[in-house]
Amino acid sequence: MDLYLIRHGESFRSLPEYYNYERQVMDPPLTEKGIEQAKLLSQRCKKLQLDVILTSDLSRAQQTANILSELCRSKVICDKALREIDMGDLYLKSWDLFPDTYSKWISHDEDIAYPNGENGEAVWQRCKIIIQPLIKKYNKVAIVCHGGTIRSIICGLLNISQEKRFYLGLPPENCSISIIKYNEKDEKYYLHVFNDHSHILNY
Q: Which of 10, 84, 118, 163 is catalytic?
């Protein structure tokens, strides 16, 4: 199985006006540039013959996935397990209110959770429930999600400590593609391509 990890297109900044109180998550939509990025991405992915597209249920990821599916003619499956890492109190508050946690978090020596939010391992645990059943069912799968989620998935699949995820992109570029290949012989995953955004560099 080839797993294509795709970050959503450019979205509006995470301002309080985009906070979804019902879901308790920041949920800004794509900008016009983000929509064009998704269209360029779909031109490239058309050649991949994707079996299925999975997406986070957040607006920016869903919009990107829907644009992708129109040209690729692949069905879209939406799952909230693929959401961005839950930043908890930091959605509407500043790190200044959590100096002790911040001093530990910024060093990236441990997989520290955001205040009342998630850490990388928590993200991986919810994502792997979605990913593992795909191995024997499909050959080519795209997952449209978020920069933090992509980094946690890569670390989880490659058995890398989650605190190391911060060294994988700053984060991955919008509409970039990272490819993980599953080898049936040794039953292991291999990072084949990371953060390829060549298809949108000229936009």
A: 84
Contact 77, 56 (CB under 8 A): no
φ, ψ of residue 172 in degrees (nearest 5): -55, 150
Largest CA distance in the chain: 50
Establish whether 84 is a catalytic residue.
Answer: yes
8, 10, 146, 163: which one is catalytic? 8
User: Judging by beta carbons within 10 Å of its beta carbon (0-12, 13-18, 19+), is residue 142 exposed, middle or buried?
Assistant: buried
Strand partners, 189: 182
pTM of this prediction exceeds 0.90:
yes
163 counts as catalytic: no
What pairs with residue 145 in β-bridges? Answer: 7
Nearest CA-CA partner of 130 in 32, 37, 53, 28: 53
What average pLDDT does this structure show over 58-67? 98
* φ, ψ (nearest 5 deg) of residue 191: -80, 115
Question: 197: which residues sit within 8 A by CB, 6+ positions away?
Answer: 173, 174, 175, 176, 177
Q: What is the CA radius of gyration of the chain?
A: 17
Question: How far apart are the two ends of the chain, measured CA to CA in Å?
Answer: 31
pLDDT digits (tens, 9 = 90+) for 153-182: 999 999 999 999 999 998 999 999 999 999
Question: What's the angle, vertex CA 146, arms to CA 145 and CA 150, rounded to 5?
Answer: 90
Percent of the chain with pLDDT over 70: 99
